[in-house]
Design a protein that fits this description.
49% of the residues lie in helices and 15% in strands. The chain is an alpha/beta fold. The protein has a single domain (6-237), classed as NAD(P)-binding Rossmann-like Domain (Rossmann fold). The longest helix has 29 residues, at 102-130. The termini are far apart. NADP(+) binds at residues 11-14, 88, 153-157, 186. The active site is at residue 153.
Length: 245
């Protein structure tokens, strides 16, 4: 079986997701990028074309379970089977625990954890049938070590870790792997809006004394998606400059 496969990336339009799409395209995979932002998806299509690639995109609200399942089922059918699923979409709603309301918790869990669960469920049967699958969940160092002011975010990212390990145990003998990548502080639109004091504190906690780049995560995804990573499952790779060790 070829090591060039059909990949789906959620939260694909910008930041880490966009870098993942471009790297998977560079590796020769067929890629479908899902995102809620149609304007940014158009920019992704333009950028991939300028780089000599062709990405397919679909505008989907991943919290709409029926639409997400329908979209993935159709992509799977049209493409002969999704081989790689990257659950990358994520949001933040940072507040101290005592100030956080139910909506801050519920919407974040719906995007960061529930959608990943539903997307995985939608493609898993096909992966088992094809005897190949790479499920790659983008967690966070916050899910590994906790983060003050982000109890909801940390809970969602820890949930991805537990879910990945459970899936790995369920389908390992079927040729399907499930792993997490836990990025540290990566230079994206999400981290740009953080206060300078937060960025300074983060830098002090990183042994390598520098922020990561989206490409650092993308290349790790490409490795876990490859045949070379076929004996790696149920693991959490912290790509964080040593922050969570």
């Amino acid at each position: 079986m070829s090591d060039k496969r059909l990949a789906v990336v959620t939260g694909a339009a910008r930041g880490i997701g966009r870098a993942i799409v471009m790297e998977l395209l560079n590796q020769g995979h067929d890629v479908v990028g899902l995102d809620i932002n149609t304007e940014q998806l158009a920019e992704l299509e333009k950028a991939s074309g300028e780089a000599g690639y062709q990405v397919k995109t679909a505008a989907v609200d991943i919290t709409d379970t029926a639409k997400l399942t329908e979209t993935l089922t159709q992509i799977d059918k049209d493409g002969g089977g999704i081989g790689i699923l990257v659950n990358n979409a994520g949001i933040t709603r940072d507040k101290l625990m005592m100030q956080m309301d139910e909506d801050d918790y519920d919407i974040l869990m719906s995007v960061n954890l529930r959608a990943a669960f539903m997307a995985t469920k939608a493609v898993l049967r096909s992966m088992i049938r094809n005897k190949f699958g790479r499920i790659i969940n983008i967690s966070s160092v916050a899910g590994v070590m906790g983060q003050a002011g982000s109890a909801n975010y940390a809970a969602s990212k820890s949930g991805l870790i537990g879910m990945s390990k459970s899936i790995a145990r369920e389908v390992g003998k079927k040729g399907v792997t499930a792993n997490c990548i836990a990025p540290g502080f990566i230079q994206t639109e999400m981290t740009e809006v953080l206060a300078d004091a937060v960025k300074k504190a983060a830098m002090q906690a990183i042994p390598m004394k520098k922020l990561g780049k989206p490409e650092d995560i993308a290349k790790t995804v490409a490795f876990l998606a490859s045949d070379d990573a076929g004996y790696i499952t149920g693991q959490v790779l912290c790509v964080d400059g040593g922050m969570a060790m």
